[in-house]
Write a sequence for this structure.
């Protein structure tokens, strides 16, 4: 079996798709035998492992993001924290905050995680806990997976601190 030569175009494409560093992209393509999809999956798994290592770091910077429906009859507010104000100003972080607010507005979870569930909450944890829900933009991933991917891209711990959902008349 012949292995395809890895080009700078391949590395650039993988970098654009994943946000990983040039060296990491090259290494992933080498490990995957130049298979782009396998390299994406390798980087995703490595990113999740990196994210788990960062979980203990303080995340006291960030932003509060608001999202409402087009009609204005419901919306959500989410506080998303990171380690530095630099990361809080990045497009990846802002996009994550936007996506989380949309997720909350659309699905109305009861808590961020299992640890935060109100006493007596009953139901499916995948519906009640934001981080365990299927991501509304890609149901093959959970919200927690999406957060960990941004952690891997930014190199900082990111934490969904709290959220609130509002609906007219409720």
């Amino acid at each position: 079996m012949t292995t395809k030569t890895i080009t700078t175009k391949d590395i650039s494409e993988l970098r654009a798709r994943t946000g990983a560093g040039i060296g990491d992209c090259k290494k992933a393509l080498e490990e995957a035998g130049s298979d782009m999809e396998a390299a994406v999956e390798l980087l995703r798994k490595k990113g999740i492992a990196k994210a788990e290592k960062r979980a203990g770091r303080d995340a006291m910077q960030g932003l509060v993001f608001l999202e409402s429906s087009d009609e204005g009859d419901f919306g959500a507010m989410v506080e998303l924290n990171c380690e530095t104000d630099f990361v809080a100003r990045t497009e990846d972080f802002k996009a994550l905050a936007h996506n989380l607010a949309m997720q909350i507005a659309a699905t109305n979870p009861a808590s961020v995680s299992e640890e935060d569930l109100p006493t007596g909450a009953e139901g499916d944890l995948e519906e009640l806990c934001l981080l365990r829900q299927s991501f509304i933009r890609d149901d093959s991933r959970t919200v927690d997976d999406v957060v960990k991917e941004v952690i891997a891209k930014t190199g900082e711990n990111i934490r969904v601190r709290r959220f609130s959902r509002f609906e007219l008349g409720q």
Residues 36-54 form the longest helix (19 residues). The beta strands are 61-68, 74-82, 134-135, 138-142, 158-167.
